Fold each of these.
Amino acid sequence: MNRKETTPLYRKITDDLKTAIEKGSYSKGDLLPSENDLCKTYNTTRATIRQALGALMISGHITRKHGKGSIVAEPKNGLGILSLKGFTAGIGNKPLSTVILQKPSKQAWSEDFYYALEEDELAAGCIFFVRLRYLDQKPLLYEETHITNLNLPHFTSRNLENRSLFRILEENYQVKVKEGEQKIWAINGNEPVSKLLNVTSGHPLVHMKRRLQTNIRNLNIYSSLYCNTEEYFLQDYF
C-alpha cells in the first residue's frame, strides 16, 4: 500500500472494510478480523486500526463488544450529498438516475430568493431547473437549482438527465466549485414534495439550502434540496 498518498491510512482501511461489508463478504453478526490481524494486514499500528473501526461504528456498519470484537451490523447506506463535489460524486458506485421535472430556462430572480444576491447576479438573471434523483430506482432527492446566468452560452439546451451538473460546468465552461455554504433542517415534508419522494405527507425529510461559489466571480450555484433519509444517512469526509 502506498503511504505517500494523501488519503489517511485509517480511511483506506475504513473504506476497505465498508466495501467488504456492503458486498456481502461479511454478513450481519459476523466478526471482523481482530485488531492484531488487521495490524498485520495493513502493516500499521493498533491506534490506526481503532480509528478505522471507530469510523465504522459511527457509520453504523459495526458494533463493538468488549472481549468479543467488532460485529457486523445491518447499516443504512451513506450518501455524500454534503460534498462540494456534488451528489453524483458523493454516492460512489451506487446506481443513480435523474428525471428532469423542469428543463433549464432563463429567469429573473424571485424577490424573496433565499440567499442575498450581488448586483451583478441580479442583473444577469439565473438559469433554473428542477430534478428528481433516484437511487436503486427509488426517489431519493428533489432538487431545485438556480445558477447565475453568466458566461453560460447554450446551457439551456444541455441534456442534464443522468449527468453530473458539476462535470458539465467544468468540461464545457471551465467552471469549478471552490467553496460553499449549506443550511440544513429536519422538516415534515409537504404534500407535493412527499408525493414526489414517495412518502406520506408529513414524513420527516432533510431540507438543505446551499450556495456554491465557483472560480468565476459572481457565478454561483444555488440549490434547495429535499432528501428522504429513511434508508440512508448523510455522510462526508472533512
Amino acid sequence: MNIASGMINLAMKDMNKCMLVMVASAMLLAQTGCKKGAGTSVQDPIPVNPAPPVTEPVKSEVAMWLTQADQKQLLQKQNTALIFGSSLNQNLTINVDTAKTYQTIEGFGFALTGGSASLINSLQETKKAALLSELFDTAGTHIGVSYIRLSLGASDLSSSTFSYDETPGDTELKNFSLDKEKADLIPILKRIIAINPKIKILACPWSAPAWMKDNNSFTGGSLKVENYGVYARYFVKYIQSMQAEGISIDAITPQNEPLNPYNTPSMVMLSVDQGKFIKNNLGPEFQKAGIKTKIIVYDHNADHPEYAVAIYQDKDANAYIDGAAFHLYGGNINALAPVHDQFPDKNIYFTEQATFGGGDFGGDLAYHTSNLIIGATRNWSLNVLEWNLASDPQLGPHTNGGCTTCLGALTISSDFTRNVSYYIIAHASKFVHPGAVRIYSDLESTIQTVAFKNTDGTKVLIALNAGPDASFNIRFNSKTVTTSLKSGAVATYIW
C-alpha cells in the first residue's frame, strides 16, 4: 500500500506540472495571436506581422511622368518630391521662359486608318468602350488624343482599294457614296466625337478614283487635267457627306505623298499641278459651297520643302492655302522652320511617321521624341501625328502593295496591347492641350526639351535624355528644381 500510495502521489505531481505547462503555453499562444494547429512551440512563438505602411503621395510642386527605354516604366507617374528652390548646383540647367512664345498647338494623335477602325470595332463592347475612352478622354489615366488623320477613300492600310465613286465617267458624282465607311470608320468616329467633340480631323486621299487618272489604276499615275473640276467637287461631296453624319473635317490635303508613285493606293501630283488644282478648282469650289475646311499643301517628306514654297509663291493659289504638311521618311526636321520663316502667315503641320514591326522600343522612343514631339514643334508645327493607330498581330490589314511592316500604336486581336507610338504621343497628348502655346526652353545635345503653357496656366516640359544617365535642373522664374533621367528615357514635367 505504501509503494502504491507513493506512486499515486508522484503521478499527481507530474500531472500538476503538465497542467501548469499547458496553461502557460495557452496563455503565451493567446498573447502572440497563435492558433491551435499552427505547429508553434512555447519556445518558438510566431510574432504578429504588422500591416504594411500606407505609402502617401509625396508632396511635389512638379508632377513627373516617365517612360524608360528598357520599358520598366511606361508613362508612369513618379512619386518623387520635386520642389522649386533657390539652391544652386553644378548640373546642366534647362531654362523655361513663358515670356518667349511661339505657335499655338492644335493637337497630337494618330491616323485612324480604315484598318484601325475595323480592328477597334471588332473588339467586345466593354473593351471597345474602355479603349476609346483611354485614347480620347482627358480624365484620369486617359491620354487625351486631340487630332486624327483619315484617308479620303482607301489608304494602303485598308483591307482593299476603293474610292467613293467607282462609276467610270460619273462626272456629276451621282454615285458618290460613303457606304464603304459605314460599317467601321463612321461608327468609330461618332463614338470618338461623343467623347471629345472638339477633336481635330484632317482627311487626305491616297488616290483619286482610278477612272479619273491617266493610267486607270489605284497605283501611281496622275489626275487627268480634264478631271480637275470633278475631283474638286469630289472633295466637296466628301466634306458635305461627312458633315451630314455629324463629322466635321477641319482640314484636307489634296494628296498624300504626292511624289510617291509606288504605294497602293498612290498618285503623283507635282507642285505645279497641285497649285493649279487648288487655285483653279479646289479653292473656288470650296468657296462656292461655303466650305471652311482648311487646304494644306504637300503632305510629304521634309527633303523637298521647296514643293510647298513653289505653291505659296503663286499668289492665286496662296490665297486658298492654310499651310503645309510634312513627313520625315526623308530629309531633316529642321527644314520646316525655314518654310515658316519665309511665309510666317502659313502654318506648319506634321502629319505622318511610322514605327515598324521588329523595331527597337528604346531606339524608336528616342528618335520619334527627338524629331517629332520635340523637333517638329520646335520647328513651328501645330500638331504631331504618328501613323497607324492600330494593327493586328500580323501587321495588317493592308492592301496588296501597301505597307507590310507598319506597326500600330496598338496591336489588336481579341484584346489590345500598347506599342511604342502610343507612349510617344501620350507624353504630349495627355498634358499639352489644344490651345497651348509653345514657350521657350533650352535645347541641349544631351537633354533635349520642348515646353508649352496650357490655357489654364500650367507649364509642361517634355524632356529626352539623349546622353548617359544624368541629373539636371529645370529653372523657371529664378527658381530651380533638380531631377534625373536614365539614358534614353522620356519624361513630361508639369507645374
Amino acid sequence: MYKILRFIFAAVIAVSSFFGIPVFEEETGLNTVAAEITEFSGKSEIVFDKQKVNTVEIELETAAPAEVKICNNNEQIYHRSSSDAYRFCAFETVETDKLTVEIKGDAAVKSVKVSFKQNENKDFRVTSYFVSQSITAPNSINPEVFDVVTDAIVFGCITFDENAEIKVDTSLLEPALTNVRNAIGNRNVNVYVNILGPGSDSGITDWNEQMANQAKKHSKAFKTRKLEGQIAEILEKYNLDGIFFDYEYPIEKEAWNDFSRFLIRLNRATDKKIGLAVAQWDLGMSYSAMKVIDLVELMQYDLFDSEGNHSSMTSAVNGYNAVKDNLIPKEKVDLGVPFYGRPADGGAYWYNYNEYADKLADIDYTETDQGKTYFNSWQTIYDKTAYAMSRGLGGMMVWHYSCDVYDINSDLSLFGAMKDCIEDRQVG
C-alpha cells in the first residue's frame, strides 16, 4: 500500500480523469427523492413535503473550489469545502419540510437534489489494513475498532521473490496476529494476511521500466507453480481466512494474464478467500480470474487532482465508474480511503491523520512541514461511506488502522465516521 515513489507516477496517469464530470447513476437500496432543482442562486431554501432526508447531491458545471453549508431550521447540519464538480453531502437523518443550502464559489450550479437513502446490505464491510510493524506491542490495537471493522488484513510480514521463494517474518506476523485476535475477542471478524512480491531492480528510474521489470519478476514466480501450495500451507498453519495481493502495477496484458492464471490455480489449491488491492487505472484481471476473486480493494488515493488533493470525492466516483465499466461485481468491491495525508505538490511524504485531526473538522487540508497537505476529514469519510452504500458497493477499505485516533468514539475518529454513517443508513 505505502508505495512511496511509484504512487507519484501512478498519480500522473490518473490525474487526467479528474477533469471531466463523471456519470452518476445506478443507485441501489431504498432511495426517496424529496426535491430536485436546476435553478439555484448562492443560497436557497428548498421546500418539500415533510419527510426524512439525509443526503444533498450537488452538481456544478465545472470542478471548482466551493464551500457548502446546509441548515435545517437554522441549525447547521453540514459544512464542507472542496473542489469537486459533484458533491455527495451526507448527514444524519432529519425529518423536515425544508433545507437551506448555501454554496459559496464561482462555479455555476447545475442541480441540487435532496433525498433519503438507506442500504439493505446487512453485510456491508469495513476492511482495514493493519501494518504489522505498528501493532506488535501489547495494547497497540483498540478492541473497539472491531465494532466497526469486519475484515482485518495484516500487512508487511510475508514476501516472495522472482524464484517463488516465500519469506515469512514470524517476528512480525505472529505477535501481530495475536494482538489482532486478542482485540477481536468474540466478534465475527475475518483475518487475512497480505503477501508482497518482488520490487524492481535498483537503478531503474523510469516508471514504465520499473513496472515492466516488476511484472517480469512476478510472472517468473507465477510460472513456477510453486507459490500456490506454499500459500495454502501458510493459510492453514495460521488459521487465516484468506490472502491478499497488492498488485497495482502490471501495464502489459500478458502480465495480467500470468497473474490471472496464477489466481485460478491458487483457488484450486485452497478454499480460503482471495483478495486484490488494485487502482482504478489498472483493472486487468481476466473474466475467469474475476470469478475466483472474493474481494477487490479499490485504492482510491494517491491520485492527485488539479488542486493537489490525492483522494477527493471525485476520486471515489471515478473508482466506482471504473468498476462499473469493467463489469466487476460491485458487491466484491470495497472503496479504499486514506487515513493519511499527502502534500499538494505530490511529494513523497505521508502524514498520519491522527497527528493533524484537530485541524481537519470540515476541510481536507492543513499546513505541514511540506506546505498544503490533503487528508480525508471526518466529513469526507462519512460522505464517501454513504456514497459507497448508495452505489451498492460491498464496503469500505482503510489504509491503515494506526493512522486514526485511538478512540473511535471521539468526534474526530474516521472509523467513528464510518460507524455513524452505517448505523444511520443501514436498514434494520
